[in-house]
Amino acid sequence: MDTTTSTSASVGRITILEEKIRTSAIPADLREKVLQIVQQLQLSSTSEATMVNWDQAEKYINLVVRLPWSTITTDNLDLVRTKALFDKNHYGMNQIKERIIEYLAVLKLQKQQNTPSSVRSPRAPILCFVGLVGTGKTTLAYSIAEAMGRKFIRIPFGGMGSPLDLRGQSRVHPDAEPGQVIKALVRAQSRNPVVLLDEVDRVAETARADIMGVLVELLDPEQNFAFTDHYLDYPFDLSQVLFVATANNTRHIATAVLDRLEPIQMPSYTDEEKIVIGRDYVFPKEINNCGLTVQQLTIDESIWPTIVRPLGFDAGIRTLERTINGICRKVAKAIVEGKLQSIVLTSQNIKEYLPQYQSSV
Question: Do 114 and 14 share a structural domain?
């Protein structure tokens, strides 16, 4: 590429960057900062080292202009609708549902009393659902976001090995990236999403103390209004984010973090509850997922106990979901192969359609 062509391309890239900056809702002081970066690019040569700087500068500016500095979704705090939605998505757990509705009721009263939405009581804890795998922790967080009409973003903590995963890395490093929190806001395109901090107890042991330190800052309303990501290098207001956490247990969560959480114990499901969940919640969903209709597959009421307890007691419903999915897949295969058009599963034929791990039933 000759010098004239290279210069023309650089001018085009600068024009695009300036237009992005001009049309975005960046804070004034940050706008000045990124415009200075653009001016430095204008004065630079076309050397190979400068091309690297170009890429890094464009990456940073594109992040800045994509962040939702002023975009906020409108909350839906209709408690009757919320209760109906929870009852539709989750069977039982009445005390937990009631606690979440109380939480939303407080938010509604704060809005009615013209309390700024960015203000949260210093002692208002973050809900943390604690329980075994498959007890509904993550799906409850989804339902909170759905009920409020907010965007939902999940940040997985399982195996997280560095606080930089949350806080980002300084741009002095060639391969620097923003942290998971800033990336979540870019994906949500909203300043007030529901952010699920999933399995906060499962971070790597070697980095636990440092990660817990970042969590304290994220969850503390006295600090999170000016959360600074190392890559962004500018404070971002997280006070309107609704954080929800999950954990398998609280033993590996730092005391300072627990002080800002309200652990809510998720109950284990009884066989009777699993029958209702499997029949009324999981089965209709899996029929639809496998392309079947209710006319093609019917399960006799008497065999649900066999389906919900294939390998002994399981606190959650993951095994139940896999079992029902396996049944639906086998029926779908038989229909596609022309072996049947519809079927009613009974005690006489259920063994043919149970997944392989249940062959001993």
Answer: no
Does one domain contain both 54 and 155? no
Helix (H) or strand (E) holding 140: helix 137-148
Tell me the C-alpha to C-alpha distance, in Å, between residue 98 and each of 86, 89, 91. 10, 14, 13
Q: Single out the residue in 265, 298, 319 at which a domain terminates.
A: 265
Last residue of a domain, one of 265, 294, 318: 265
Q: What local confidence, expressed as pLDDT, does residue 45 receive?
A: 54
**Cα 286 from Cα 280, distance rounded (Å):** 11
Name the burial class of residue 35, with classes exposed (0-12), middle (13-18) and buried (19+) by CB atoms within 10 angstroms of its CB: middle
Closest to 232 (Cα-Cα) out of 181, 184, 178? 178
Percent of the chain, pLDDT > 70? Answer: 88
In order, the DSSP letters of 97-116 are HHHHHHHHHHHHHHHHTT--
Query: Which residue's entry shows tokens 């009324």?
Result: 280
Q: Is the pLDDT of residue 6 over 60?
A: no
**In this predicted model, what pLDDT tens digit does every residue of 285-328 receive, in sequence order?**
999 999 999 999 999 999 999 898 765 567 788 889 999 999 99
Which tokens sit at 105?
């009721």
Q: What is the pTM of this model?
A: 0.83
Same domain, 198 and 180: yes
Report how many domains make up the chain: 3
Collapsing DSSP to helix, strand or coil, 3 comes out as helix
230 with 252, same domain: the answer is yes
